[in-house]
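Final report, Chapter 2: Outcomes

The project's central promise was a pipeline that accepts a single protein chain and returns its three-dimensional structure in a standardized token representation, suitable for archiving and comparison. That pipeline is now operational. To close this chapter, we reproduce one record exactly as it appears in the project archive, with the input sequence first and the structure output second.
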Amino acid sequence: MIDLIMWIGIFIVALAVLIKSSDYFTESSEKIGLHFGIPAFIVGVTIVAFGTSLPELVSSLIAVFAGSSEIVAANVIGSNIANILLVLGIAAIIAKKFTISHEIESVDLPLLVCSAFLLLMMSLDGKFTFGEGVIMLFGIVLYISYAISTHKESEDKKNSDEEKHIEEIKKEKLGFKTWGILVASVFFIFLGAKYTIDSVIMISDILDIGKDIIAVIAVALGTSLPELMVTVSAARKGNAEMAVGNVLGSNIFNSFMVMGVPALFAPWFVTEGYLKVSSELIGFALPIMIIATLLYVFMTRDKKITQWEGWTLLIVYAFFVFSTFGLV
């Protein structure tokens, strides 16, 4: 019992370190990128968008290096489910009702659905191979290219506050502090991810349950906390629309990049030579992810999400969590 409490404590602390270090990494990288004249839209699409999926990516890579590749799929699937059902659900409830002005039907939504169904089809045999990882990385290249072109077109629409913020960052001198934060954050990201995965492995051994079961709920929920915090803050300020784009981009990044990159290392670090996808994930979590994705599509097509739809998303998430642990 003492060992279990200790490892749960290590898990919580390590996950907090991972998430906070990722925030510092993203912030310092953004400052460095803007300071050296990289266009703001490229910084936003690459560094900032990449930063939201950094906890999932690093923890998944550490899981592969530790030989526990089943954590990768559980992390991605669980995070995608939490982003839509929990994060978007809370945003809709806080905002009560919000409209969506950004046109997402032409490319964004199809890419979201494509990434989800590709992940489903590639995982049905219980294997996620090197070749499938390469295909997923082509997907993220396509999405980043589209996102950069879209952000470039909207540069002229920036409000004065955004422009002032960017100019202030550009004028700041890059001292030792910014570079030091960047280097230190990389170290603590690695440290946080390592102990997060180590604690998941130990907890699963003590409780005699699958590592993927813990990862699909606890790790996925933890790594979705940055999206949740940003969403709650935006909803309170009346800018809940940010949640829609945040969830959409994060899920696309997760499916394409967080599955794709670890799959490239699997032949060298995993005994089987591929990422394992457990039967529990295939039989229950993956279908829930597809259902959540389709709910997202249907709810955003009329360019508004109501408070009642938010409660519906939370009810589905509660069902997912309780069912995963066999409580219903």
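Archive annotation: The two ends are 25 Å apart (CA to CA).
This record, like all others produced under the grant, will remain available to the consortium after the project formally closes.
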